[in-house]
Design brief:
Elements: H1 2-11, H2 34-53, H3 58-73, H4 76-90, H5 94-102, H6 108-121, H7 129-153, H8 174-191, H9 201-217, H10 223-249, H11 252-260
Amino acid sequence: MDNLLAAFTFLTRLPLWKLKAVPAVSFKHIIPWWPLVGWLTGGVTAGVLWLAGQVLPVAVAWILAVAARLLLTGCLHEDGLADFFDGMGGGGSRERTLAIMKDSHIGTYGVVGLIVYFLLLFQLQSLPLKFLCLVVLSGDCLSKCCAAQIVNLLPYARREEESKAKVVYDRLDCKGMVTAVVCGVLPMLLLLPSSMWVAVLFPLATLYLLYRLMKRRLQGYTGDCCGATFLLCELAFYLGSLALATCYASRDMGFFLWRLY
């Protein structure tokens, strides 16, 4: 229970620490619960999107939904994504890249990267409202599961005392892996039609490319890498779903999908 509470405490701005003091060691064991936190963050995003979409255009509702998640998470992942772009864009060596990523100031690569990220993210407004809500919830959980795999694939790139969070995550054991995969994949299997399940290939391909980049440039991962992996895998899932829905919409088999949602 402490590990689960630590995961929600770390990944959201909810004042859960008022309910119970979480031991510091529990934050080392939160990886299996990341996708379950996605049930909350993705659920809030989808909920705000659905409610706002009843009285506002989908484009406006989508902006409000994204803003709601930014408030809920404290822009934790977006901060990591900006640092990741800055480090990978401006760092020539491993040491320089790690130093840039640790710097709290945002640079040109981080600014441009976030702008492009949000511009691509807002293209989801073209999807039907109900379908978009289901894609959002599924994508949040699935992508947190993908981000969790980085911890198993690579070692931590710094010493533990140099970590921003002052903690290094433990790798997933068999039980933790099952927990992460079930919590990450279940929403997609329950909410989306089987014709959309192939969209999982997009975040998996993104995970592989990021793994190769981190291994070559850093010989490991950092907390910023985890946040960047989550957002980029999520974006890949969203864009993949958009591409599939657009493709299906141009065919007879897609008519049922669009009428359903």
